[in-house]
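Page 42, continued from yesterday. The earlier attempt failed because a stray header line got pasted into the input along with the sequence. Redoing it now with the clean sequence only.
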Amino acid sequence: MHLAILTGGGDAPGLNAVIRAVVYRAVSGGHRVTGFLRGWKGVLEDQGRDLGIEDVRDIHKQGGTILLSSRTNPFKVENGMQRIADTLSRNSIDCLIAVGGEDTLGVARKLSESGFKVLGVPKTIDNDLAATDYTFGFDTAINIVMESLDRLETTARSHERVVVVEIMGRHAGWMALHGGMAGGASVILLPEEPFDTDEVCRILRSRWDEGRHWALVAVAEGAMALFGEKYGDVVRTITIGDPDHRHSYELCGGTHLDRTSDVGAFLIVSEGSAAAGVRRIEAVTGRGAYELVARRFKMLKQAAAALKSAVEEVPQKAELVQDELAAARKQAAALRIELALSTFHVQLSKVQTVGGINLLVMELPGADKETLSQLADRFREKYPANGICVIATVSGEQVIVMAAVTQDLIKKGLKAGDLVGHVSRQLGAGGGGAPHLAFGGGRDAAKLSEALANVPGWVEGKMN
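This time it went through. Structure tokens are written below.
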């Protein structure tokens, strides 16, 4: 079985230990493991490396992840999921192991729903994933919070200060709760429980009156205060809909008016979740609403002028422009491929022989990774055996290197991942992938010619 593993999102303690465990278990069972670099970015760009026992020996003692990480979201990339599916199919991946948090495993779930075999390993210091008690990274994170609070207590005592410590956790307060309790925080504020600032002040004043002239307040970054309005035993409520079949039954808070007409125009500008079961709505009213409408209408008129259309036709014209742009990009891509193929076929007739191996090394301006993959297929059609192809392209400041190796040479120890890594290291970066096809690159384009010139020597050395 061919397994693949990636690590996405923020780095957390325990990632290397997970990678090591997967490789040890897989290799001992006679299976193969490929590690995709930089999370989903590596799958999108088909950048990976073979992982063996020597690659992961003792890495559980290291922080971070040897596979690197990124916050790339395939759903924000054009044809992202299709590119991932193509990479997994091209490399004959039987099962993908995704190590990450909410975003990484969200992509993994949708990939699984599309029919691919996917395993998810819960990694997040926020501990905010369902169906798991503790995630990788959480225990270390709360211990660091505890140690930080313990150190800050000395300063708070010495200077008689209230020290407010913000702790990561936009939507989940597990880190602030566990770390705050272990670190002896006087007040802990969580996203799940909106707090009253007056109540917090009362607690702190009570400590002061008792002679404890210091305090630690642990605040999760997503904690949110409620309005300061006080409610007695009897409160006003609002019923929306038929009283017998009401749509909503709500507490009436905030500003009270004699009539709704006093509000004037009312425009919602943002809406989100403040805590579990609590929605936060931000709106502008009265003159502010009219000013907002005026600003947006001015922007709409500017867009209409740029699109050379009437205001009412802006949505249709914008959609038409997007369609035309997509068609132009598709046509440009087709022209690039046509030009690349033409140049490639010229060079294909000039293949050199190194140690009996048919070797093609060339630089091809303007090509993308998809084009390079197609050229690798064309090379293998011409040389189904005893062939190695290395093609590099420069796109802006980025150098992309592709290496392809035929199956018979792979059995002799020549692997595309090793070759592309050798070239990429000379360019100041790295790369890897499957033995038959790998990608890499770097940012030092000035060294590209020298790096490509060293390929024949590398091949000859491997054969000897």
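Notes: The mean pLDDT is 86.
Reminder to self: strip header lines before submitting.
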